[in-house]
Amino acid sequence: MTRSFTVTTPIYYVNGAPHIGHAYTSVAADVMARWKRLDGFDVFFLTGTDEHGQKVEQAAIAAGTDPQSFVDRVAADFRDMAVRMNVSFDDFIRTTEPRHVAACQELWRRLAAAGHIYLGAYEGWYATRDEAFYGADELTVRPDGVRVAPTGAPVEWVTEPSYFFRLSNWTDRLLALYESEPEFIGPAGRRNEVLSFVRQGLKDLSISRTSFRWGVPVPGDPDHVMYVWWDALMNYLSALGYPDETGLMARFWPADLHLVGKEIIRFHAVFWPAFLMAAGIPLPKRVFANGWWTADGEKMSKSIGNVVEPRALADEFGVDPVRFFMLREVPFGGDGDWSRKGLITRLNVELANDLGNLAQRTLSQIARNCGGALPPSGSLTEDDEALLRQARALPLAMGAMIDRQALHEALEECWKVIRASNSFIDRQAPWTLKKQGETERMGTVLRVLVDVLRHVATVLQPFMPESMAKMLDQLGVPQDARHFVSLDVPLPDGIALPAPQGIFPRFQDPAAA
Ligand code: ME8
Q1: For residue 488, what are the CA distances in angstroms to 483, 484, 485?
Q2: Of 267, 349, 376, 400, whose CB count within 10 A is highest?
Q3: Does residue 375 have its Cβ closer than 6 Å to ligand 1?
Q4: What does the H/E/C string look like for 8-39?
Q5: Which residue's alpha carbon is at the smallest distance from atom 4 of ligand 1?
Q6: Does the pLDDT at position 511 exceed 70?
Q7: pLDDT tens figures, 139-186
Q8: 93 Cβ below 6 A of ligand 1
C-alpha cells in the first residue's frame, strides 16, 4: 500500500504583502513534500491564507476597502508568491471560503453540544498584532508608557461577552501527550517552552469576540464571531473535507507535520491538540517550528514593515538560488539575519563553482572527447567505488535528516559528495588521461562523475526543482526516471547527451562594481 504524507504551512494573515519569512516556511515545507513524492509517498501539501480577525479588518479599513475585496486581493498575492517560488501545494485554503466556514461551525456545534464550550465574559489584555490574549504577568511597559506583550506587540484592555473553550480541563492530558510522544514538538527548545507553559496550568480560552464583525459567525449566536485562531487552526481539517471523515480525511489525516514559525508554536502544540482531543479527532504527529529571519536583528514582519520581497530576489538571482540560500545558510529551527552578501557568496561558491562547474567540466569533456555520447564504464578502481558509494548513500542519509527537519544537514551531506567529486576529478584528471591516450579510463572517470551527478541532481530536485530538472536533462535522465527508485536502474551506455549549458551563472554584483 502507498504510504501517505501530509505536510502543512501556517495559513498567512493577509494584512500585508508576503515577504521572505512566509516564503521560507513554504519553501521548507515544499522541500519535504517534494522529497516524499520522489520517495513514492502519496503526498498532501497544504498552504493558504488566514483572512479573518481584527488585524485583517483594520488593514482593510486602512486601505480604504471593504474586507472581502481586500482579502481577495492580498490572498491572490500570497498565492502568486507561492507559485513564483515553485511551492508545489496540493491545495490553497482560504478561511473566507464556504467550505472552511461550514467546517468551523460544525466543530463548534459538536464541541458545544458535548459541553466543551460555555458563555462567559472576557476581561483582559489583547494584542491585535499577535491576535493573542496575554496574562498581566507576561507584559512589560515600554519607556514610552505603552504596555507590550513579550513579542513587542502593544496590548489593549478588552471587556466583552465571550464563549470559552474549557482548556483548563486538558492540562494533564496535554502533559501526558508530550510525555508519551516526545517527537510531538520540535525543536527541543520549543518543546521545553511549551512544557513550562502548560505545567503552570491552563486557563479556559476565550474563543469568540463581539467588538467587531469580520469573522466566522458563531452558530446560534450571531452577535459573536469566532476567535481568529479557532477559525485558523481549523483550516487543516476544512481543507480535507471535515466533517466528512471518509474522503481526503481518511487518506491524509492525521497530518504528519505542521510546519510553523516559532512564535505560533503554542497555538499549534497546546490549543490545537486540545480542540482535537475534545472532538475525538486523531492528533497530528508532529509540530516543528522554524526560526526567524531578522533584518538588523529584528524579526522581519508585515506589521513592522522591515521586509525583503521574495519575488524581487527571485527576479534578480533566480528562484533556486534563493530557495537554496534560505535552507543552506541557517540551521533549520534557528534564527538568521538576512544578508544579500551571504546569498551572493553561496550562489557563486557553492552553486556556480562547486556544483555548476563540476557538471560543466564533466559534460563538456564528454561533448569534446566522447562525441557527446555517454561513455560506458570500464573496470572500476577503489577510488571510483568509494565516490559512487558515497553518492548512492545520499537518498537514505538525507531522507533521515529531512524526516527530522534537518534540511541544512541534508544539504551539507550532499555538498560533501560534491566536494569529494571535485577532488576526484582533479585527482583523476581525465584531460591528462586523454592526452596520454588512455581513452577507456578517461571514459570511465567521466561515467563515474555522470553517475554521481545524477544522484546529486536527483536528491537536490526538492530544493532546486528547476535547475535540477535542467541538470538531469543534460545528464540524459528521462523525465520518468527521476524518482529515488529509478536510481537503481543505470543509464544506458552510449546515449546522446545534449550540448552542456551552464546552470548557475556567477552573479556579478552591480552594487559592488
Ligand atoms: O501567524 N522568519 O500568520 P503570519 C521566519 N495567520 N518565518 C517567518 C517570518 C520571519 N521573519 N515571518 C513570518 C500567522 N514567518 C497566522 C497563522 S496557522 C493556523 C495561522 C512565517 O502571516 C512563519 O512560519 O503572521 C510564521 O509562523 C508565519 O510566517 C506567520 O505568518
Answers
A1: 10, 8, 6
A2: 267
A3: no
A4: EEEEEECCCCCCHHHHHHHHHHHHHHHHHHHC
A5: 12
A6: no
A7: 999 999 999 999 899 999 999 999 999 999 999 999 999 999 999 999
A8: no
pLDDT at 396: 98
Rounded-to-integer distance, Cα 9 and Cα 107, Å: 21
Bridge partners of residue 294, in order along the sequence: 299, 337
Angle at 186 between CA 183 and CA 190, to 5 degrees: 130
Domains defined for the chain, CATH in brackets: 339-510 (1.10.730.10)
Single-letter code of the amino acid located at 379: S
Rounded to whole angstroms, how far apart are CA atoms 189 and 302?
A: 26
The angle subtended at Cα 27 by Cα 391 and Cα 67, nearest 5°, is 170
Ligand 1 contact via 132 beta carbon (within 6 Å):
no
Using DSSP's 3-state secondary structure scheme, residue 3 falls into coil
Distance CA 29, CA 326 (A): 12
The answer to whether 131 touches 215, Cβ cutoff 8 Å, is no
CB 289 within 8 A of CB 186: yes
How far is residue 328's CA from residue 309's CA, in Å, rounded to a whole number?
A: 19
Helix (H) or strand (E) run with residue 163 in it? strand 156-165
* Sequence-distant contacts of 103-106: CB under 8 A, at least 24 apart: 103/234, 103/237, 103/238, 103/242, 103/243, 104/216, 104/226, 104/230, 104/231, 104/234, 104/238, 105/216, 105/217, 105/218, 105/219, 106/242, 106/243
Average pLDDT score over residue span 499-508: 93
Distance 261 CA to ligand 1 centre (A): 5
Taking CA atoms only, the protein residue closest to ligand 1 atom 7 is 21
Is 232 a pocket residue for ligand 1 (Cβ < 6 Å)? Answer: yes
Q: Which residues lie closer than 8 Å to 22 by C-beta, 6 or more apart?
A: 12, 78, 81, 310
How far apart are the CA of 160 and the centre of ligand 1, in A? 28
Each residue's pLDDT tens digit, 195-249 = 999 999 999 999 999 999 999 999 999 999 999 999 999 999 999 999 999 999 9
Over residues 416-461, the pLDDT tens digits come to: 999 999 999 999 999 999 999 999 999 999 999 999 999 999 999 9
Length of the chain (residues): 513
Confidence (pTM) = 0.97
Chain position carrying cell 527530522: 404
Helix (H) or strand (E) holding 56: helix 54-62
Whether 101 is in the pocket of ligand 1, judged by its Cβ within 6 Å, is no
